[in-house]
Every structure is written in structure tokens, then in C-alpha cells.
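Worked Example 4.2. Consider the chain below.
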Amino acid sequence: MTKDERWTDGEDVIDSPRRGRTFLAVAFVILVLGGLYAAAALYFADRVPAETRIGGVAIGGQTPAEARQTLEDRLSEEEARPVVVTVDGTKVELDPADSGLSYDYASSVEGLTGFSLNPADLWNHARGGVEREIDVAVDEDALAKAVESKTKPLDKKPVEGEVTLTGTTVKKTASTPGLTVDRDAVTTSIASAWPQDRSFDAPTSEPAPKLSQAEIDRFAKDDLEPLVSGPVTVTSTDPAGEGAAKDIAFVVPTEQLAAAVSIKDTDGKLSATVDEKKVGQAAIDAGKASGKFREAKDATVVRRGSSFDVTPSSTGLALSEEGIGAKVVAAMKKTGDQRTIAVDSKESQPQLTTAQAKKTIPKEQISTFTTYLPSTTGVRADNIRLAARTLNGTYVAPGDTFSLNAVLGQRTAAAGYGKAGVIMGGRLTNDYGGGISQLSTTVFNAVFFSGAKIEEFHPHSFYISRYPEGREATISWPNVDNRFTNDTGAGILITSEVNGDEVTVTFHGRKAYDEVKAGKSARKNITSPKKITDDTKGCVPQSPAPGFSVDITRTFVKDGKTVKSSTFTTRYIPQDSVTCTNP
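Applying the procedure from the previous section yields the following C-alpha cells:
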């Protein structure tokens, strides 16, 4: 066949060169279209589909970086809006940034871009219209910590009620339940619903108090109110009443009964306890205050010139104290006319009877001692005169213990004392009763030479030259005392007086020893004073004197022989030199 020959196939006749040109044209079109398709795919690979909205923000046609920035710019304020948690009506706010709550802008645009030759993907890019919510990131540990930090202060412990007595009035305070926030539930709710929900009601529970209102009401009505519903009447009989026995009646005030009541809460169970000793003493005191009983009177010893006389003792009438407290408590649990008890009365005896006083009446002076006032005028001297008058005539029965503090009482302005010099903390100052340590020292030396047993004495902190070295005693209310026990076998009548510059205390009794001697060692452990300049107001100047210690010996002589002896050591601190510079 030649080049001009034609091929036939049925009715069609094909020209081979022409056919080749057509094929090339088609291939070229396909190639161009493929290039355009690939270019479109490449273009859309780095662009968010058209009409795409994330969290309501349009980001279509933007690159991922542009889309993330757009979302952050538009949604950052919304992202930062606080989360409100309501706890039993109280609102607290959580800062999302501090609570592990954030928008995940990168995740939100993931999958919206990328190279693809899939026609469907190209169609979706071209058509667009993607809408979805912003992705969020939740750090549950941080969220739990934030929830706890904000809601923990709103937890409330249950408040236990109480029943109290104010005087005789019963007061009730109601119990109230607590409040506990279910923080796990709050955390779970926020983690699952944020950011669509930004307000949450916190579930709570109410821990109940141990003490119920029913128990409060029961205890107040049935147990406590009867105890303080009124006074308790005490009846008795005076067997020494004229003619027939004399009836006695008095009341123990409700206020004193209530003062003896204590209330206890044991794991929600209330109970009341009445102090039997207190109500018993209240009954005894009420009896004494009624004027229907009388105190026994001790015999008294007085000096009449050079002799001594006894004022007779007398018996008294007192309630029998045995079991009285239990009887009062039993009556307190009753009401109305049933709050009455009967108590025996008995004759009370004096501590010192006439016979005892006569048997041991003083016969002679057993000791005396005198110290000298640095000045007979001024507050110090007046204080000593007042204390001496108070002490004068004091009688110490055989076996009794004398207390100078008990005899003089507290030194106050109301008692007639003024402020004068005292030693406090190693320094001179002023206080009420200043100066009466001179009387105390005079008493101590009278005790020393009487032979009576010394129980307590306290030397001054530094030595005062007008007193016997090592044999002196200060006094201060209420704990620094001067005490002795009368073990001489007879009563001791104390006389004390101030004549001119002399302060004299004398003991009258019966001598147990022919003589009591005093001995003193040389000074030991000598220490030097310091120099002090003091600019404070109220400073009292001091002259210097050394500190030292001495041993004092007490020797008891009878029938010319030493029957016993004792030794004690007195220690003095230095008396510092004090110069006062404040006018």
C-alpha cells in the first residue's frame, strides 16, 4: 500500500496525519487543565475554605497563621471572661487564665488546610461554608486548684448550739448546719461545659452538728430549768431555844445555787452537774447571814496593868454541815414547795475556851525588842504607828501559827496607809505601807528571843544598817510573810507601840527557856555595788553598800545548859549607788 492509500473501516475513512494532530491538541488541553487543577489544589492547600467561621469569627481564605491571629484578636476578650461559681447565694469568680482554661487557636484551624487532588476537597474549598466552635484546652489539675482556692473559704463547719446560765436565766443558742462545696462536681461541670457555660451553681452538702435542737430543748426544759427555778428553803431547830425548841427557816438564794451548776456537752448529749461542796457552803453562808445562828466566841486575853485577864468564851449555834450539799442538790431537782430540806443544828465550840485560856494565861514577859525610827514624822512613821496599833493586843494561843500579813491585812489607801519607801527588784521605790518592814523586823526579833518556832521570814534584799545584821524581816502583801508557831506551851500576848523614835514589840507568856542567845559570823562572800545613773521619773537615789552573807546562830539555854541550837544564813545583794538625773 502506498502513502496515498486510504484505510477504510466501514463507512469512516481516517487520515493518519490529521488524527495525530488532534490527539496532540487534546493532550495539550488536558495538560493545561491538569496544570490549572494542580495550581488550584496548591493554592487552596494554604488557605482556609471560604465562608469558614470558628466560634463565630470569619477566617475564610486566610492562611493558618492569619486564621490563628484573627481568632486570638477577636476572641481573647471572650476567652478571658470570668467563670462565675455560685455557692449558696455567694458568687465567686475564676480567672480562666489562672484556672487552666484556654482557647486552643492552633487546634481550631487544624485540618482546614493542606494539599489534596481530591476533587471533593477542591470543591469544599471553593464552596466553603465551614462553621464550628472554638477548640478549648482544659488543665483539670489547675482548674481543681482554682476551684478549691475560691470555694474553700465558703465552707462552713457546723456550729454547735449551747445552753448557758446567765445568773439564773437559761439561754439557748440554736445549732446550725455547716456547708461543704462539692468541688469535684464543680470542676467536672466547668471542664465539660466551658466556654458555652460560664456560670455554675456549686452543689453543696450541709454537715449536721452533733447537738440537735431537740436535745437543746429537752435539756433546757427537763434538766436545767428545774435546778434554777427558785431558792431552796432550809429548816432547822435551835435546841437551846427558850421554852420549847425554836424553829429556824431561811433560804439559799437562787443566784448562789445557779453559780454551782456546770453544763457539759458529750458528743451531742447535754448534762448538768451541781457542785455539792459549793451549794453546801452556800447554805451555810445563807444560814450565817440570816442572823438565826451565832458564832462561837473564843476566850480573849487582855493585859490589865501588870496582870492578865481572860474574857470568857461562849458557844455558838451552827448548821450540821455533814451531807448538807447532797440535800440541797436533791431539792434543786424538784419544784415549788418541794424545794425544802431539813438540816440539824448543833452547838459550835470556840477554838480557845475559857478554861484553856486560863490554864495557859501569860504570866511574864518572855521577850522584847526595840528598833529606832530614822524620823518620827512623815508617811513612813505614820504607816508604822498604824501597823503597831493594829498588831497591839494580838493573842496567839498555844499551838497556833501567827501571820503578820493576816493580822495587818492588805496595806491600801482605804486602810489608812500612805506611800513610802520600799525595796523592789533591788531598787528603792514607793508603795502603800512603805516602812512597816521595820515593825516586821521588830516582831521577828521578839519571836527569835521568845524561843517560839520561826516558820517564815524574808530578809531585805540589801542590808539596812538600822537593823541587826542577818536578823531582820521584810513583808509584802500577800506572799512575803512573817510567821511563827507558838510552841512555848502557853499563850503569847503581843504588845506593840511607838514611843518617840522607838518601835517596841513585847511578847508576854511563860518562858520555855531561861535564855535565847544570838550569834553571828563574820561577813562572807562580799560583793561590790555598781554605779547607776537613772533619768526615769520617780527615781529614788541610793547610797552604795556592799553585798555579803552572815550565819546567824540561835542558842536555847535552860537550867544553865544549852538544850538546842540552830543556824541560818542571811544573804544580801549589794546596794548599788543610784544617781537620779530627772528633776
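Residues 15-44 form one domain. Residues 426 and 461 are 6 Å apart (CA to CA). Compare this with Example 4.1 before moving on.
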